[in-house]
Design brief:
three-stranded antiparallel β-sheet, globular, five-stranded parallel β-sheet, 33% helix, alpha/beta
């Protein structure tokens, strides 16, 4: 926490205080001039009270960096040839004929709101959108590496800089051009489908660096066997840690590196422990590289991140006012010292063969006292006398670490289940069962999970802690942002990247969780303690307050538009034939602030 706070404070000291200061910081970090329209963007940001820290937009440059290694006409033609997409022409935003999805209409609404802002002049661009819940592009590492090798930044002399984008006529450009992304669905492209569904992980592995753990580790194909013939070693519980290696970055202590905690290239076991990989809800992926915009991506994904439509639509704040909708605020001292979570069993398509591998099912099991009591008993006497069953919960979704590496006294004295019952209130609101019976009974997991009604918004204000778990990836941003605004401590685990990740600090604004949840008990133990004098309630309160205050500054609707505005300026430049000479140099030629 101390290190994170120091890093956060250091970042805030780099905030730009003027247009020329912002441009100078841009050139230092990006090795290029700012894009045309930068002065208007800065004025828009200042007008809406933005915190202008250059690193807050790093995600844009990470996403667009490979584009600089591709010829601009190719990028433009591909963007204009795929759909659905939003087109921007002369400041007018419209969906193409294929854009009938509700999620796309939210993005159209967001772009339209930006276009209607005074003094905002959007460049002409075609913006293809991913309307699925999962990321769309997973391009092989070698392809991206080649593009990055060709993407050399050039800082042109001020007198050579062009300050206006070129004209954009996509209709003429694509008259004789066709492009097929070759979307890969869930079925394998074999003569028969006897090998079962295509594992998403088969696309993830080639996208990782050749020397990464995931690339070196084979694909566990038996996980997806159509009849469920999976080896014991690859069962959900046995893919979780059974020991606690000293110095292990994967399971040692707490998450100190948030990026690494969600790095799929460093964690090959996630192929069998996360619903987004085990059973994607709407798998439609391409290994080709082209402009494709979406709300989420994996650490190796190639979608260009934008604010999610759900976050835009569900924001608690009204654009231009910064005022919170009417509600009841519960002071920290009056909140119950409880981890409260309600949510559906989403995060992929769970079935009778794969549900035990889903991360949400694992979390609910781990927070269920009766499941934990069973696991505690099996540590003492393994089920059926089999050592591999030691510490495994009744649903087979999780395993208690026999070594008790976090030195939990409750596990030592056999009262872990009783202790969890005292502070965890976690349940599903919908099992999303693949084969629901007429009586709403799920034949494969209703014996393990009960279902409760979704809580009213005000109900969630009563508790100090909540969990932010990957659901359907593109909808998770709104859940997290709204949790921050409720002045609670969010315990967050995720394999996805979002547009706002670069402006939030783990251990300052939220508590990071390992994606196996192996650290969740120790986190609860640290903040709550065994008794009042042993707790770290003040640290929890500090995180809750910091998250709320920071969300009100950098995660508003205005901030979504500011991010989107800058992204579109950068995107318009990288697809322009004259991109190496395009820029804003007003501060260098005497225009000043």
């Amino acid at each position: 926490m101390s290190t994170a706070q120091t890093d956060f404070t250091r970042a805030l000291k780099t905030e730009a205080k003027s247009l020329s200061d912002a441009a100078r910081k841009y050139r230092t970090r990006r090795k290029r001039h700012p894009p045309p329209g930068f002065s208007a963007w800065y004025a828009f940001a200042v007008q809406h009270g933005a915190v202008v820290v250059e690193s807050f937009w790093d995600q844009i440059y990470d996403d667009l960096a490979p584009f600089w290694g591709i010829d601009p006409p190719v990028l433009r033609m591909k963007a204009a040839a795929v759909g659905p997409r939003v087109e921007v022409r002369d400041g007018v935003v419209r969906l193409d004929a294929k854009g009938k999805n509700d999620r796309l209409r939210l993005w159209e609404n967001m772009l339209g709101a930006l276009a209607r802002e005074k003094h905002v002049l959007l460049p002409d661009v075609d913006v293809p959108f991913n309307s699925n819940a999962e990321p769309g592009l997973v391009v092989p590492w070698e392809t991206i590496d080649t593009a990055l090798e060709l993407a050399r930044p050039i800082l042109a002399a001020p007198m050579d800089v062009l300050t206006q984008f070129s004209s954009y006529d996509s209709d003429q450009q694509i008259a004789n051009y066709t492009f097929d992304p070759e979307w890969l669905g869930a079925r394998l492209t074999h003569p028969t489908s006897s090998r079962g569904p295509r594992p998403y992980w088969s696309l993830v592995r080639p996208a990782c660096h050749p020397r990464s753990w995931t690339r070196k580790t084979s694909l566990f194909v038996d996980i997806w066997h159509p009849q469920g013939h999976t080896s014991s070693a690859h069962s959900a519980a046995n893919m979780l840690p059974t020991t606690f290696p000293n110095g292990s970055e994967a399971f040692g202590g707490f998450v100190g590196n948030w990026s690494r905690a969600g790095d799929v290239c460093a964690l090959p076991e996630l192929q069998g422990l996360h619903g987004g990989f085990v059973g994607p809800e709407s798998m439609s992926a391409s290994v080709k590289f082209f402009p494709w915009f979406g709300a989420v991506k994996f650490s190796v994904g190639n979608d260009v991140l934008i604010p999610g439509g759900s976050a835009w639509n569900e924001s608690l704040y009204s654009l231009g006012t910064g005022e919170e909708e009417e509600g009841v605020r519960v002071a920290w001292e009056e909140k119950q010292d409880v981890l409260f979570w309600r949510g559906p069993a989403t995060g992929g398509h769970n079935t009778a063969l794969n549900w035990q591998r889903f991360h949400r099912h694992r979390f609910v099991s781990m927070m269920n006292a009766s499941h934990v009591a069973f696991a505690e008993a099996s540590l003492r006497t393994p089920v059926n006398g089999e050592p591999e069953n030691a510490g495994v919960g009744p649903a087979g979704t999780f395993r208690l670490l026999a070594q008790n590496p976090y030195h939990l006294p409750e596990q030592t004295n056999g009262t872990l289940a009783e202790w969890i019952h005292s502070w965890a209130d976690v349940a599903f609101t919908d099992l999303h069962c693949d084969e629901l019976s007429p009586s709403d009974h799920c034949p494969y997991n209703s014996d393990f999970f009960s279902v409760t009604a979704p809580p009213a918004p005000r109900e969630q204000e009563k508790y100090k802690y909540t969990a932010i778990l990957d659901g359907n990836g593109s909808d998770n941003d709104s859940e997290f942002i709204n949790a921050l605004r409720r002045e609670v401590v969010p315990l967050r685990a995720s394999v996805y990247r979002h547009w706002f990740d670069g402006r939030l600090w783990p251990w300052v604004h939220f508590v990071p969780l390992d994606n196996t949840f192996v650290d969740v008990y120790a986190i609860g133990r640290f903040f709550r303690g065994r008794h009042r004098d042993d707790s770290h309630d003040n640290q929890a309160r500090r995180i809750a307050l910091a998250g709320k205050e920071w969300a009100e500054k950098v995660l508003r609707k205005e901030d979504m538009l500011i991010y989107l505005y800058r992204l579109l300026l950068e995107y318009a430049r990288v697809v322009d034939d004259k991109r190496e000479r395009l820029g804003w140099v007003g501060d260098l030629v005497g225009e000043g602030d």
